[in-house]
Amino acid sequence: MQIKKFGKNVVWLILFFVSGNAIAQNKNPNASYQAPVFAASDRLQRLEPLFPLVKKMYQEYAEKNHFPGYAFGIMLDGQLVYSGSGGYSDIASKTAASTKTFFRIASMSKSFTAMSILKLRDEGKLRLDDPVYRYIPEMKGQQLTTDAPDITIRNLLSHSAGFPEDNPWGDRQLEKTDADLIAMIKKGISFSNDPGLQYEYSNMAFAMLGHIIQKVSGIPYSEYIRQNIWKPLGMKQATWEYTEVPPAFLARGYRWIDDHWREEALLHDGIYGAMGGMITSIESFSKYVALHQLAWPPRNEPESGPLKRSSLREMQQPWRFGSLNANFRYASGRACPMAAAYAYGLRWTDDCEGRITVGHTGGLPGFGSNWAILPDYGIGVMFFANVTYAPTSAANTAVLDTLVRMAALRPRKIIPSQILTQRRDELVKLLPDFSQVEKSGIFAVNFFSDYFTENLVRDAKAAFAKAGKILSVGEVIPENQLRGYFLLNGEKGKIRVSFTLTPENPALIQEYHLQFIE
User: Considering only CA atoms, which of 90, 51, 41, 99 is closest in space to residue 71?
Assistant: First the structure.
C-alpha cells in the first residue's frame, strides 16, 4: 500500500539520483584547470642588479658595430622594466637618440600585417586557406609548374608561396603604390619553387597581404593597423610616413662605409610598407611586445586585447621549418644546436635546452632592429639602431641568455591537474602488490592488454626492495594536464612512477612506467 501511495515520489527520487549521478559523471573534466605560474615571486628583483651590465652590453655592441644611435628595452610580464639609448638619431644636428625616438623597424612590421589578417579571419571575413587569386584575381593561374597548387593566404604568411628571396630588391620597393604592385603581378611572377614546398623569405608576399587587407576591410592596410592595433594598444608614437614625425624625434638612417657614416635616403610610405614600413619608438613598441607576452599562458580570463590570445599564440607557432643550426653557440661560447622556423610574421627558434624564442628582425637601408621574447619565461628584449642592416639580433640573443642564466629564471610551472593528483593517490594505494588491480577502476581498457599483472607486481616489488621503506610520496610533476610523474622517496633510493591518462571523462591510466633511481 505504501509503495503504491508514494510511487510517484519514489520514482521522482530515483530519477533525481540517477540524473544527479549522470550530471556528476558528465561534468566538464577541464573545469578545474589552473594556468601555469612562475614559482619565483622575485624575478624582477633578480633582474634589476643586472641592468647596468645590460646597458654596457648594448653600448659596447653598438660601438663595435658602428651604430650612430640606438635604443633598447627589457620587458617582463608585459611591462617595460628597463630601457636606455645612446648615440645620435641625427648626426648633423647632434640630436641624441632616446626611447622616444622614432626608428624605422623594417621587417618587424610584418607581424602587424599578419595580425591584421588573423583578425579579419577571426571576424569571418577571410580564411587562411583561401586562394590568393580570390582577392588578387591577377594571380589566377600563375605558377611554376602545371601541377602546382594554388597559392593561399597561409603560404604568404609563412613564406612558402614559391616566391624568391627578395631582400635587396624588396627593400627598395617601400614606396611603391598598390597600383604598381598589381601592374607588376599582371606582367607575371617569376617563381623559384612551387607553393608549399620550401621556406623562402618574401617581402612581396607581405605586400600582397597588405593588398588583401585593403580589399577585405575597405581601407588601406596602414589605416587598418592604425585603427585596429595601434589605437587599442595606445601606440601613440607610431606611423608609416616619416614626414609625419617631428624632426627632433625622427631617427635618420645611415650606412657605415669607408670609415664614416653616409646618410641614407628615407622612403615614403607605400604598399610595401606592409612588409617593412613601420616607424615607432621603444616606448610605443613595448606595448605591442606586451600584447604578445600576455598571450601566455592559456587561461580562463576575459579577453582584453585587439586580437584573441589564442590567435596571438597561433601567430607564434612554427608553421614552416626554416633551418637547423647544429653548430650554434651563444655569445658565452656555450654550444647549443638550434632549430628555426617561420610563424606568421614572426620567427621561432627552439634551442638544445628547449628554450623557445619568438620575435623578428628588421633591416632596411639605414636601419636594423630586433625584438624577441621567451614566452615560457615572460621576458623579452627590443633593440633599434639607425645604420643599414644593423645586426641587432645577436645582441638581443646574448642579453636574453645572460639575463636568464644570471638571474636563474625558470619557465612557468605547470600546476598538476586534479585528475593527475587523484590517479597518483590511487596508484600509490595499489603499489607494490597491485591487489585487486583489475577492479580498481582507474585503468583504461587497453591497460591489461599492454601490461601483465604478474610483471607489474614483479617489477614493483623489486624496486621497492631496493628503495627500502617508503618515507614519503612526492608531488606530481606534470608534463601537461594528463601526463606526469611522481617520486616515492625511500630509505635507500627513489622510485619514479610516470603515467599518462586517456582523453576520456573521467581520464584513466593508459600508460605506466616504474623506475628505481639510485
Answer: 99
CA 367-370-376 angle, to 5 degrees, is 175
> What's the CA gap between 160 and 196, in Å, rounded?
5
The conformation of residue 165, written as its DSSP 8-state character, comes to P
pLDDT averages per 10-residue partition of the chain, 518 residues:
43 41 67 96 98 98 98 98 98 98 98 98 98 98 96 98 93 92 96 96 97 98 98 98 97 95 94 96 98 98 96 98 96 95 98 97 96 98 97 97 97 97 97 91 95 93 96 97 98 97 97 94
DSSP structural state of residue 317: S
| 432-to-25, 315, 455, 471, 508 alpha-carbon distances in Å | 30, 47, 11, 15, 19
Burial label, 418 (beta-carbon count in 10 A; 0-12, 13-18, 19+): middle
Q: Residue 190, exposed/middle/buried by CB under 10 A (0-12, 13-18, 19+)?
A: exposed
User: 476: which 3 cell numbers?
Assistant: 606530481
**Cα 496 from Cα 394, distance rounded (Å):** 41
Q: Which amino acid is at 225?
A: I
CA-CA distance, 215 to 178, in Å (whole number)?
A: 11
Phi, psi of 455 (to 5 degrees): -70, -40
Burial class (CB in 10 A: 0-12, 13-18, 19+), 388: buried
Contact at 8 Å (CB) between 372 and 393? yes
What is the helix (H) or strand (E) element at residue 163, kind and residue range?
none
pTM, two decimal places: 0.92
